[in-house]
User: What shape does this take?
Amino acid sequence: MAGHSKYKNIMYRKGAQDKKRSAAFSKLSREITVAAKMGLPDVDANARLRAAVMAARAQSMPKDNIQRAIDKASGSDGENYEEIRYEGYGPGGTAIIVEALTDNRNRTATNVRTAFSKNGGNLGTSGAVSHGFDRLGLISYPATAGDADAVFEAALEAGADDVESSEEGHDIWTSVENLHPAAKALEAVLGDPEGVKLAWKPHAAVTVDESVAATLMKLIDTLEDDDDVQTVWGNYDVPDEVMEKLG
Assistant: This one.
């Protein structure tokens, strides 16, 4: 269990959605509604709903908005969202996984395919790149939650598998099955996390240079700006000095 190595979050810019709060709230609401519809509309009895609500709170989403999204799940006029995963190749030999919630599969597929083709990539078939990733649980805490040693010890006690700490914060990795038990145990020690979710962690990272990074970031931005796209994961590693040049 590595507790001190610097880990660059494989989601591009953790706070990217902050600059578009209304769009972020829309995506969070959609996940809450889907989670509530798939199980009980009770955060204590529905692990996915609990994670969605925690993510919404971490983004300062108002309580009324959260409750409205939960209530929407029991309404007869609510949209029926479908979960879809897209896999493709980005510039520089990178692998990209896109997770979406959509009420129109054709629209979303067209938008995702266009985003790839216009930004140096191409959309692959199901399973094209996911074999190079592990499906794991990810619990994220800000750097203010504690120093690396304290977070490492808490994660160990909670049954986590790995911890990656950096100046930006702490990423705590668990098995899929242990995600919510570990999150609950950590909450008692470290407080509310920034995020609790299922994630895709690459087996190996691909370091990209400046010539590739600009196009790659444009691809990620285009995908994340799509209303139907919930999360974008990849195996890319953009060095700090390259990110600084990109601004």
About this structure: The longest strand covers residues 133-142. The radius of gyration is 18 Å. Residues 58 and 160 are 21 Å apart (CA to CA). The helical segments are 21-38, 47-58, 63-72, 105-118, 148-158, 179-190, 210-225, 240-246.
